[in-house]
Amino acid sequence: MSLLTTVAALRAAETGTAQPLTTVRHAHIDDHPVVLIPLTLAGEACAPLAAMVGTDRDRPVLLTVPQPRDRTLRFRFAEELADILLPLIDGCRTESETYEAGRPKEERTRWTRAPQILVPNPGGIEFIRLLGRSTRLRRTDGPHAVAPTVPLLGNWLTWFADRTDFPGSGLLLAMTRLLTDHWATGWSPGENAHLPSLLAWIDPPPGRTGAEAALLAEDPAEHPPAGPTTDPVFDRTLHELTAARDAAPDDRARAAVDRTIADELRSQLAPTWELMWRGIDLLRALPPAARVPGRRAVDRTVFTHYTTYLEEDGRPRARRDHAASAARRLAQLEDAVARYESERAFDDPLVMARYELTGEAFTGTVVDRDPDRMVENGRAGLFRPALTVRVDTRPLLAVGTTVRCAGRDGLKAEILDRREAAGAGWEIDLQLTGGLGRVRKPPAPEGVIPDLGEELCWTTLGGYMTPAPLPAEEDTPWTHGGPPQPYEPTPDDAEESWE
Amino acid sequence: MTPSPEEQRARAAELRAALREAIRDRDRALAARVRRRLRAVETAAGEGSDRSDAGRRPPARDQVRRALVLLGAPAAPKLLSTVHRAFFDEPIVPSRIASLRRDEERSFAARGAARAPYVCAALTHDRFAPVRGLLALSDWPLERRILGPLGPRVDHLTHVRNLALRVRDIRAAGGTESPAAADLLRRFALTVPGSHRTDDGPDPAPDPDLLARAAEAEARLHAAVDDRHRHTAAARARAQLPLDRQLFGAAPLQVIRPVTDLS
Amino acid sequence: MSTHPSEDRLATLRGPLAPEPCTARGITALTANPGCSRRAVLDAAGIDKATLAARLGRPARFGQSPFALARGRAFEALVKANGYAELIALVREKLGVPVEEAAVADLNEVGGSASPALRARETGHLLDRLAAGAEERLLLDHPVVPLEVAGRTALLEPDAVTHRVDGRFHVVEIKSFAVIDGRADPAKTAEAAKQAAVYVIALRRLLESLGHDPALVATEFLLVCPEDFSQRPVLARIDVRQEIEAIGFQLSRLRRADDLARALPADATLDLSLRSDGTPARTDAELAAGVGALESHYTPDCMGYCDLARHCRAEAVEQARPECLGGRVRDDLPGIDSTRTALRLIDTPGDGETLDPGHAEVVERLRAAARLYDSRRRPPGPRLPTASSETSPDAPAGRSAG
User: Fold this and answer.
1) Domains, chain A, with CATH or none
2) Which helix (H) or strand (E) holds C164?
3) Can you tell me the ipTM of this complex?
4) Which residue has the higher pLDDT, A124 or A221?
5) Smallest CA–CA separation between A481 and chain B, in Å?
6) Which one of A333, B78, C91, C124 counts the least CB within 10 Å of its CB?
């Protein structure tokens, strides 16, 4: 985080209007995202209560568990969810494309689409993680058998939850995080976790400031919580209805209560459904950042790997990761974090400004250039065109530092000198050391060397011009580090339902 | 004109929302009014029906007695219900157990020992108060119905042994215990040391004979102290209490000075 | 009468209503925001904060779900069922308690009565005898332990106390949040630890008052939770020395509530009582004035546990306090007590001559950040029409800065 975010938050608080934190959208928003809003039963580790799910704004599908303590009904929910999600996931596997990867380079194939699930908040991601954990190890035979789609759904949900930890991945995303990555409100992070208020800040109804609208959006009667935790006062309604269901004398009476329960749950979910799509609209209205398609290609590649893994092996992930695979995953995560931060800065001057503030980047106007400069080096000499740029703020980077140009992919330079300019500001001398193609002497290719008067940003941030290194096929997540612990039926499965 | 079912359901949903608002505003009077209206609408719509089908079920009293005879020591309603389901095919409705002891006490007052054995109370060893939640049989000697500090554990071991022996007998007769009975035995085996054949952890299908012997072995460890408690207390109770109090427990202690209750 | 004089002041504030019972959870909430005088006085006086918040027009937005309550009760009942069979098995397996140890004491009732006072007396007798070695008990079920909190005696009720673990008393807390693959929710575990620490303090003080060594109460407690998605209990032993110290300190500070209350205007009131006709004895405005006279220390975290938080937040927003924007923004504005001041300093170069050097540096950095922010943000203008999402890998290259 940065002081720039603080400034944005101060302005938001002052004006009552959310302030942008980016100039572009850094996340992929799919043409057909799966919106999933789960609700769980309070007090339980992972007892699904309801979900609203679908890819069509006008046709949400409502799943309900009229008695969440009933194990059978819980697994029926998992089955219904599988019946919706699995075909959508499968639908991404219609067209493939080839790409080059590996060392030595080889041609590989991947699907042209990957699924994207959008949930309201990090709690929704946690729900997916837990539902995955509680379904992927189920047996499809024996006394507590479940439908074969249930453990498959568990594998997929576990995979989505695992991938969402990687910044830049667009497979499973939480709407509140997406929005707070792109806008600052005048409220605290904890309050921004409430989707209705957050959207009210960013896109208030006509005639209200974001601050006013956000306060109104806290009313749980108008804006039920976006889950997975339900409003405790609503739970009283539900508690009475589930009690009535338990007391129902026959199937007809029970079905009537079930309908009422479904109506009530729909009333809790429908407002959030609408908010999710408004959030999608707002994000789509932002122009996508340049590197978004590249990151999406990574998503499609890992998606392809995982579909292959499920077909060829398909064993579920163990309860706990092995030490070796946990360490490897951590290293991959660290790489993904650094890469994502850097890519965002290169794509977005407002993000790059954070690095300008800390001195890791500077923006300057070219005031002098020597496009044909050669440096003595043995017989041939080195082609090192030079630039002088003028900057407004005191340069913090030392002579000898290598910097990359944010506007020109691949252009690299070394700082030769820095000095206070006559008049105002400072001047920095740069010699170009990379990005000139294979040219070894002047002239440089057309348009590579910046012109006089051009304003460019230079930074020490990592280049990451190549696509992210991908795990080899055999390293498909959690298959490495030894075979997964096979499912062991524990006697507790029998006790999972309420007695 | 009578409202359509859809209209009634919509009306009920509105009232539920209004009830929630009243609860949020902590307006109890309004909440009570809305709740009454909601009940009326629900009843009209046939929701929340409380039609009872008590007539078809056997009396809870017989079910409880049967489970108690099998268990052989005072037991809580939940265990009685589980045991009845596991060994006699159907659970006992908990709400019907709740009122049973008071009904039995009234019946005893009216008709004396005529309808014995009664479902009665287990007693605390110090004040002879009815032990919270436990039921016993009136034809058991007081020693069996009085619980000292070791009483809950010893009674549990008695339950475990008797249920294990019953399963053993079922198998000896060529039958198979119900899944619920197997479940109960497996859970109980986790609570008694020495009930597993190996040290590899819990046995998914414990040996009933081994389990019975393990329960007896632990019970023997407690027997000397526990028996002394029971006998001393029973002797005192016989000397101090009339017969009905011996069965249903001494009246609760009275609180002389009112104190603030914990919520 | 031997009533503490300060209790008089607090009782006057409260009016005719009985004080709200003091629970372990309420006591731990004090440690979450120790700087809040408002909460300290409200709790010391036993004011019903939820009702107060509703009267002030900003009712609390949380409460306990009946499902969560039922689940908590059901799990505790399961752990204690069948003569505490599960609990005994746990302490035997995990803590090496010998099989001979199986004596228990059910303190939910004394002689058929559930009166907390009776149960507290019985608990005291029993603890005295246990500490002296005159009796043996492995488990005490729901003992009731007194604790002096700001001049009032709270009667606290741990789920259970074991005695025969390493010769010490151990508080047992039975919680229904799950331990999944060996991990539990850290926030819930921390809350359980704080509650346990309150019980440890209460038990230690009780033993001390009975003339025993308070160190007989262990500084660890036993946390019992369901495992994974099942109902099977697992046990963890958790050290709470830090929590004991923190809460002990807060309890000693609570006595300060007397001084705070005494400093209030003589006519200040927090009286929530109703007249016989059902109308409030005091107007909402009077209550607001009473609350307003108590200094609050709002942070956004308060929204998670304090019934009054929405009222305090409104005040804090009114005063543009930096805390409203979260801890990070507040930390970025050291020594600046209002976001309006911060913005004025940022947007009025030359202002701030009166600042001390440390302050000036903060403002200088903020100004630099604001300059960058304003020059790099996307120009205001109409929103772009909804664009279909990007699929082409050769989307436009990144723009240059500026």
Assistant:
1) 3-319 (no CATH), 355-459 (2.40.30)
2) strand C160-165
3) 0.87
4) A124
5) 26
6) A333
